[in-house]
Fold each of these.
Amino acid sequence: MSLWRIAWKNMQQRGVASSLTVLSMALGVAVMVGVIVIHAVAVKQFSSYAGGYQLIVGGKGGDLQLVLSTVYHLGESRYTLPYSFYREFTDGKYADLTVTAVPYCMGDSFDPRPLEDGPSDQLYRVVATTPDLFDKLEYGVNRDGTPRRYRFRDGRNFRSDHAFEAVLGSVVAAKSGVKVGETINPTHGISGRGDRHDEFLVTGILEPTGTSNDRAVFVNLEGFYLLDGHSLSQKTVEEKALSGPTGPPQVENPRGVLPPATLYNNNDEPIEPLSEPQREVSSILVLSDDQMGPTILTSQINKDQNQAAQAVAPLRTVANLLEGIVGPLQVVLLVLTILIVVVASISILVSIYNSMSERSHDIAVMRALGASRSSVMLVVLSESILLSLTGGVLGIILGHALIAFAAPYIEAQAGIQLAFWEFDPWEIAVIPALVVLATLAGLLPAISAYRTDVAHSLG
Amino acid sequence: MLLLEGVRKSYAQPGAERLPILDVPRLAVGAGEQVVIRGRSGCGKTTLLNAIAGLTTIDAGKIAIKGVDLTRLPEAARDRFRARHIGYVFQTFNLLPGFTALENVLLGMTFTGQRPDRARAADLLNRVGLGHRGHHKPAAMSVGEQQRTAVARALANRPLLLLADEPTANVDPGHQQQIIDLLRGVCRDENVSMLLVTHSNEVSDQFDRVEQLEEVNQVLKANV
């Protein structure tokens, strides 16, 4: 009979005490697993949101603000760029290094509740853009390395020459109940208290992407420009000395959607697009296929003194954010959970140590049967390790069960997708750490076992 | 086979001289011999057996089993020697409560450094009439069955010497003779020397060689 088996039998003999000790360890480890996995998945997803964007160009200001507003639809984008700067990418000086440029105009929101109910807390950002966003850009890569392309669950992409068409992210469609063929009215501003704009016809609903775009409404940029308060006044246009191409395309194959020659409303009646000088963009997503393209573009844009523009690589910005803010927070959480596990280990110590007087007889019997002092010491240490590992394994299972249980809530609240089998390599470190902790916890009772006076304990 | 020479043992007393417990000038037991040491309770019988088993260290003298002087062995070697060559039957059986009868016998084989022999453990339980009780825990067994299990455990490693400390003291009268017959029978069958201590005349009368502890232990002789 091995020493492990003897230790296991000892655990069984003190079933209730052992179960409670295992439970306290399991709960500690479950919390730890929860923190590790949720943090890892959150970081991965937060980073992967940004993975679909090679370069973001926006008005000079904080690069974090630009990334947060463009990628995560958080905060405000205060610094706009003239439309002519977008044209620099489509058919201007940056066109050679650009594969696709997609303009973003932000600042409106969509409240699915009726106007008479007043502003609600369920507000979704409206992003005015071109159909290229879904036709030509990807949103990251799959585990097998293939690119993730936008797909439509229902309907189709909006058309560039139909001003008032819109596409809904999967969460917006699910929460609002709006279907293809129905219309929505964006609200001016992001507070939800602004005026309701003209209606847009929903032509498509995206499949879930697992990114913040699931929670956004995408409308045709041309329609957005025609809404109240979205055009620059003639006076402002005259004050701004604009450069860059305007009018018909300057190159044969422009790298983005340009204002159509004829624009239609939803009744297929021709309407007049907003003139280019009166247009602004919040940011521009730029895809460059040249390996050095993003670097050269970033360098050229950021050094150009004539333009109040900046180019940022969102992945780097997000990495800095995670390192600077989320990283230390994770350390604090980990320290707290480690403390919980240490407390659980101490409960193992207390449980075994308290039972030492009753088990000293069993130890003496084993010694009388020929067990050495180190053997009885190892039996006690094995029991401590078994208690700890049983608790640890149960804790890992429990932790993942809790994650699976909470997954729908977390996804609804934070947009983070979790699954039961979402493992993090750090979890493997839990097992050896528990063995070390259990050995330390078992040391005191093990020494007590080592010192057992056999003749006295046999009585 | 067993030879004790000049064995002395005393205990320290707070604020007083050491209290002598054992003074055995010589005691020898031959191979396969069955010897009873008689003495009243509290006169050092258990201390003598613990000293022979190496569970208690002695102050002076020599305790040799088959030529090996246990007093000269380091503790770990003494433990290993005890596991392999000495069987011990206690007055209070000392079965581990969380283990079945079979597991208690296997436990007796665990510390020899060799793989426990399940077949022998089962065979021993059969020989003590408990073949059908192997998977029962001590609490589910009668005291007679518990002591028979303890006998099987003591013989698990084919010991040279079996020490029995009042093996019938806690057994009901109806089963006492059964235990004595069992001990004598299996020791004879396996050629195991037996040293049995008891205060019972009924038990001692059945043995050819009976030593009075008062004669063996000079400490008691001086006090008489």
Amino acid sequence: MVLCQTQFISFHEAIKLKEENEELASKREIILKRLRDCMPEEAKSFDVFTQGSYAMNTGIKPLDGDFDIDVGLWFDMSREDAGPVEAKEWVFKALEGHTKDVKMKTPCVTVTYAAGYHVDVTVYSATNENCKVYLAKGKTTSKREEKYWDESNPKDLIKEIRDHLTDKDDRRQFRRVVRYLKRWKDVNFKSATGKPSGIALTSCVYHWLDIQKDIDLFNGKVTYRDLDALISLIRSMISRFQTVYEVEGGELVSYPRINVELPVSPWPNLFELMTNKQMVTFKEKLECLLDALEEAKAKSDPTDACEILRKQFGDDFPVPPRPMTGKRSVAPAVLPSTESA
Amino acid sequence: MKELLFNLPDGRTLFIREPAIQKMLGYQQSNENDCEAGGILIGRILIENNHFIIDEVSEPYPTDTRKRHRFIRSQKGHQEYFNALWEEYEGRCFYLGEWHTHPEKVPLPSTVDRRGWRENLSLLYETDSLFFIIVGTEKIKVWYGKCGTGEIACMEGGWENERKTSKKTI
């Protein structure tokens, strides 16, 4: 029975998007300058804030090197002051021509750089009579019902995730498990569609993680068990799938589905958009992950366990050469000669 | 896959990897005139939990005495073999005990064996435990010895029970 905690920690260090990532900060500055300089006159005043996993301390490095920078624009206006697409058009006008590839997408305006990263700019109506914050949804070409202000408060979400759990070391295990799961998703879901979103997985960990640690009664030393934390979390997730029935070609077909709520208002189900078939794949992959985690745990040699884990978490998961998992002796033993019969 | 796992009285485990087992099995005294063979056990004490893993065993050298019912292991050969591994692994390996074969189905240690193990346990090593393996013609048996106190206990398990033992750990 092994835990491979040392290897999990190295893996975490390898995939973690560090807060002091200068490269990303400078890229962010470039776009902010552009927004401030080129915002059309009719636009309301705005504040800027960093959002996304980076702000929640749960960011990981992308596998393909395509960094995603999230910028939120907090417009000082109510929903009545401007239409959602009207507000997004201000942003689009400010950014148009900045690179060859600027697109208005349903939830944001995306600027793609040839250097291999993109910036998603989201637009919020932040001053409303009900104190709620709304995200601008829709594109210029969208139908009327697809252009709307959608209740969503990223600042509340960031705070909720950042401050989750009071013990700072428990919180670290929470963030590590989020990152492990997000990297597992990137490694195991290759097609562009049908993968669970990062925030959906983050919310699963938020709601269902059972912190796993040992406390030494003699010296109070705390040892975290990330492998056990993952095993209990994935087991819990699998147990939450429920069967739904659909009529297909006159026959009743059953599908497994799981729901998870965003931890802040309006608590939407973050798995809502996954199709039934995608849900089947998602559940199968979770079961495969659980089998691997349990198989790894049952191993006696950490190297054998890490080889199993690497298949799930990808090449950033280290497989130590066997001797490296052993203690170092001070000097070679002096052997006796022996007699047996 | 042939791997062996034993539970120690103190909650730790001894795991013997397949390459080591295969080497020892190569010397089983299955035929009437096969002589005893033996060597030393080399392995790791894990950083993460102090459990033992036997990775390597030495094999008989010409300087050893091999008879039908006796095996005398000289220091020569085995010491050089151990030193070479110790260098290669930058000190990350320990001498963990002895193995030898017996021409009987289910092996039992002789008086000579027990005396030799006790003497060995009185010597000074960096490990707190040594293991003694006897390879019979149908069963491998492993004894656990505590350095210092010289206590010796037979461990449950063996390759016939491989499935049962490994299941316990899941």
Amino acid sequence: MAPADSNARATLQLSRGVLLATLPTHLTAAGLQRLRADVLQRAPDAAIRGVVLDASTVEIMDASDYQSLSETLRMCMIMGRPSLMCGLTPGVVSSLVELDIDPDALVAVRDVEAALDFLRGGSA
Amino acid sequence: MGELKSSNPALQGADHLAAEDLLALYDVGPRDLERVGVFGRQVLDRSESYVEHFYTWLAKQPAFDRFFTDRATLERVKVVQGRSWRDLFSGTFDEALLERRRQIGITHARIGLPPHIYLASMNKSFTIWAEKLYPGDLDAATVGSVSRLMNLDTAVVIETFLARTNEIIEGQRELLEMSTPVAALWDDVLMLPIVGLIDSRRAQNMMNDVLSKIGETQAKVFVLDISGVAVVDTAVANHLIKITKATKLMGCECIISGLSSAIAQTIVELGVDVGSVRTTATLKDAVTMAFSLVDTEIKKHRGSG
């Protein structure tokens, strides 16, 4: 059986210069901190030209999770790496809007494909 | 609902049972109906006195003013009610009478009379007929027969009332769903024309529909046309902004079209912050903008027009 926190940890992979982090189903503050540390550690790598956070499997996201993720993306942007979120589901979006979050705090696109298009310089 | 009907009469609602089954269920036999008939003949010629007692009581109830706004209605209801009691105390109970009782439930559902008022009215009526108007003392057997028949009648009316009310609610729900027709205008472009009033429930409904449609179709642009919206105030503007925020998080651009000069004026005067929401005056502008966002162009055929 998998350890209890295995589904609270994001998986990172590098594909054609894009650092893709797949967020876990259940977000925790500790998990998000570790994700930030991992992403920021790898972002300066010259091989990386963009960062994508894939939220398609996330079931619940509260305002502080959203803030933490948007801050991580902004930190990467400051380091010169275009960064965006993708795959937010209708249920998560609906609850985020009710929590009155700022949608302009990050760039969001539909799915990983649209994110890769965006980073290639195409439109989202 | 039809297929859920049970073949066991005891499990069916009273609004579906036949007169015969109902009489058996409420233990009302031919002797009881006979006693009710005798009781009816004793009291019905005093029905004017019943009306007087009953409406003196009803006028004190808070719901009275809501349902009897004018004198004509009140007089009409009094006549109908007299007929209804003569019917119930006739000493017979057949399908035709049962159907007339069900109509009472349907009427009450239509005007939205709360069931507790109806139940209290039946309770009060029994007291008036049996204690105030019946000449002499009632024997226990007649009291039993009359109250069993009245219980049966109340059950029929309330069951029909509930069934009809549920139908009304179901109809409203369907209407609400129909009021948010999110349509694919083009590849990657969705559109939702809104007509009428927007309240928070409708806005929530629209948002859910739009988000799930974006999820299904992976649309890139969503046009929300509000030219048919009757009133735009702060609340409505905030609902619309909420929808645009949500679509943005789904990776879909939202364009709000149909902002007339009056609406634009209202929004600015109310100090609503539209932020980065894309807005256009006409649907044509919005569609043009949508097409340019998905790199599509509409061209006239040479020589036409």
Amino acid sequence: MSNIGSYEQRVTDFSWDIAKEVLNWKDDELLNIGHMCSDRICDRGDGEKTALIWEGFGDKKAKYTFNDLRVLSNGFAAKLQELGLEPGDRICIFMDKIPSLYFSFIGVLKMGGVAQPLFSAFGDDSLEVRLASAGTKAILTTQKHVKKVRKIIDNLPELKHVIVVEGNPDKMRDGETFFDVEAAEKVEEFECYKTNADSPSVLHYTSGTTGQPKGAQHAHNTVFGQILTSSWVLDLQDKDIYWCTADPGWVTGTSYGIIGPWALGITQCVLDSGFTSLRWYKFMQDNKVTVWYSAPTAIRSLMRDGNELIEQHDLSSLRHLCSVGEPLNAEAVVWSEEAFGKPFLDTFWQTETGSMMVTNYPGMKVKPGSMGKPFPGIIAAVLDLKTMEPLTEPGQVGLLAFRPGWPAMFREYRNQHDVYRSKFIGAADDATPDECRLNQDLWYTSGDRASIDNDGYYWFVGRDDDVINTGGHLVGPFEIESALIEHEAIAEAAVVGKPDEVNMEVVKAFVTLNKGIEPDDMLELNIMNFIRKSLSPLAMPQEIEYMDKLPKTRSGKILRRYLRALEWGEDVGDLSTLENDD
Amino acid sequence: MSEMHEDVLEYVIDEYVDEDDDIEVEFDTALISSGIVDSFSMVSLKVFLEKKYSISLPDSEATPEAFDTVNSICELVAKFQD
């Protein structure tokens, strides 16, 4: 029997208080996610239950109980306090998926800090932009990644502490702190900071069409959205061995790779190793994974590698599969039924929403390729692109939107209230973030286009802006274009997404070269590596096209939509504003 | 080892490994499954091989397994040089 039972019945009877019932929560308890994921699980008698099964490069393996998680996160919390960090300080976690990432995330929350996880493959430019925007006070990293911090630290006056949690202590430089929590003295007791529902918890950066990435600030109250969706959609149950493949540098990796499952006391697996089909299947077989939450890019790669590898492994423990990050194509759903005997259930949500919004459910009929239906309690609609009123006819395409007010909703874009307000249709010009978030007459717009069919299933159509979804990660064209023109050969650049069988979209750059520079065999490679190192592998153009000039409007604005339409074989639309030589 | 092995190894070390990484990369060191080269960055490695050896590697052959060591990369390149 699934946790959700009947979807229709849950919609009828819904209240967010059910999340508290699932947790057996008392209103006078301490609402601190760090406490809830560790101390609270121990307090209920599950201290010796396995919290984390970890495997890394070179077949390294480790296991930690909830009591280990409690003590080791105490260690981080105490160390941060000792260094003088205070509640509300932004503390960046910049490391691979090593155990200390998970312990430090919980530790930061316990001492009242704001956890700011960043994808460890970010280059120094991407890192600097995000640390500067957040006014980050401390960064927890490893010897492998500290060199990127060293390159930029002089530009970050607010960054006071660099704490290296793994590596060789003899290689630290002046001003850096080395702290190996597992080697340090154990901290059995730590008094968690008394956060409340509105205290800031996690800060994730997300990309938009214009400007630099925006910091979506969440609060401790998000946990109630995350645990109920973990229970009803991921169907997590006490004996499950759960594997979320996402990196906590992105929101899936924290909402469903840390908070939701651990607040429920579920055993999680983490594989900190590069992707190969063989390695993944072996990991699931060895650890008897029961619930698997992954991404379409990985699923399509597995599909491409064929079923022979699956047949060589015992994957009979798998009982439930879900997917997130980008729309899961119908072929992948059908394949998973064939290959694993069960379909991947697609789930839709965003960094900003903090928890799942439109999804498929255990026991509900799956329409392959559909996003599913709104989570109980979520009021969703597809809005007319001109009037911004809900569309009523099935099949009409519009902007996917939600009535505000769910628990995991983000509280602000850090220092960008105007941008936050612009996400809400109907918000007053002077509305504060809280006035937007709590006004159920407004519509929060997702930036995605969708339609609804006769049976109430939602179907993703595409982005409503220029943001590129590559391998389930949103990449902003502006950030890449800004970096490209830093390359000595490039005069101007425009970046769009181009279709890709595995990653849905990949980055394609159109560039004009500075006078006197001719493209040669190695220039494309040089530009690719330049972006890979300064921003990240995700932002690296997978193709570069040289142009004599970029298409622009008469006012000089580069027409990305024209280039994108050409890549996708779509109608290029109204070109009356296109600049020409006449 | 062939000149190709030496050239590919040198490129991998230059582009993907920093001096203070404490990683020794050899011809049979796992690149993809060890995380030295991530799956997105495989594209730039593929472009390097195509330009350096004047070949075209189909996406279906440029798999993480085929790119996992310098040895397997060289085997793949040799196949398309024939």
